[in-house]
Amino acid sequence: MSNLRVELKEKIIEQLNLEDLSVEDIQNDDLLFGDEIGLDSIDALELIVLLEKDYGIKLTDPAEGKEVFKSIETLAQFIESKQ
Amino acid sequence: MRKEFYITASVKIKNNEIFKNDRSIFKVNRGLSIQDFLKEAYQFLDLSYAKFHKMDVLCKLGIIATTVLKEDYSSDTALVFQNKSSSEVSDFQHQEKLNDFPSPANFVYTLPNIVMGEISIKHQLQSENAFFIAEEFQPQIIVSHTESLLKNNKASTTICGWLEANLNDYYVFLNYIEPQGEVVFSAPTLLENYIHE
C-alpha cells in the first residue's frame, strides 16, 4: 500500500474522529460517503480543509469535489496529480 | 384545580461519575480528563453510535445523560434545558483556530441548542425544545416552560434540567417529567435535587 494512501487514512481517522475505524478497516476503493465509511457533509468540509492545510491544494469546484472525495484512491490520485 | 406533573427519573453527571435516580451507576478516577471520562462512559453504556466521537463535550454529555435517563422515548418528548456557559468549550476551540484553519466540524457545535438536535436524532424525537442561558440554575423557568408544553399538549413528556460544560468543569442534572408519578414536579423540588450531593 502506498504511503500516501495510508497517510490519508490515518489523517481522516484522526481529523474526522472516526474512532471505531482503523487503517486496516478502510479499503482504497471504499466509498467514503455512503454505507461503507459513512462520512457526512461536515466531513466533506473537513476534507477540503485537510487538502488545503496539509497538501496546499485548494478545491474550488464543488463538482470536482464529488469525484475527488469518492474514495481514498481517487483522493490520492488527485493529490498526486497536483504534486 | 392545578394540574400536576411528576418527576419519574433523573440523571446527574458530575466529577466523572454518573448517577441515575441518585444511585451511582458509573464512576472513573476524578483525575481523568472529561474526554476520557466520556469515552469510558460511551463504552460502559455500549452505545455503538459512531457519530458520538465527532461531537463536542456538551453534546456528548447530553447523549450520555439522556441514554441513562430512559431507554426509550416517545417521539413527542420535549427538551427544556438550561446552562450558564452556552457552548463555551466549542466557542473557544473555534476562536483558537480562527487565525489558522478553522474546523467546520468544530464550528457546527458553536451553539448550545445543537445538543438538542443531536439528542433528537439519537432518540428519534420530533418535538418542541428550548435552551435557556442563565447565570445560575433557575428551576422556575424550567418548570413554567415544561408545564406550558405539557398542559397545551405540545408534548406528552419532557426531559428538562441543567446541562453545563465549561472550560473548567461540567455538571448535568436532567429529569424526566410525566403526567403520572409520585414525586411532584416543582421548582423547590428541582432546586433541592440539583444541589443534593
Automatic annotation (TrEMBL), chain A:
Q: Which UniProt keywords apply?
A: Phosphopantetheine, Phosphoprotein
> Carrier domain spans which residues?
4-83
The cross-references to InterPro entries, in alphabetical order and at most eight, read: ACP-like_sf (IPR036736), PP-bd_ACP (IPR009081), Ppantetheine_attach_site (IPR006162)
**Gene3D superfamilies named among the record's database cross-references:** ACP-like
What domain of life does the UniProt record list for this protein's source? Answer: Bacteria
One Pfam family this sequence matches:
PP-binding
Q: What is this protein called?
A: Acyl carrier protein
Automatic annotation (TrEMBL), chain B:
According to the lineage, what is the superkingdom? Bacteria
Protein's name in the database:
3-oxoacyl-ACP synthase
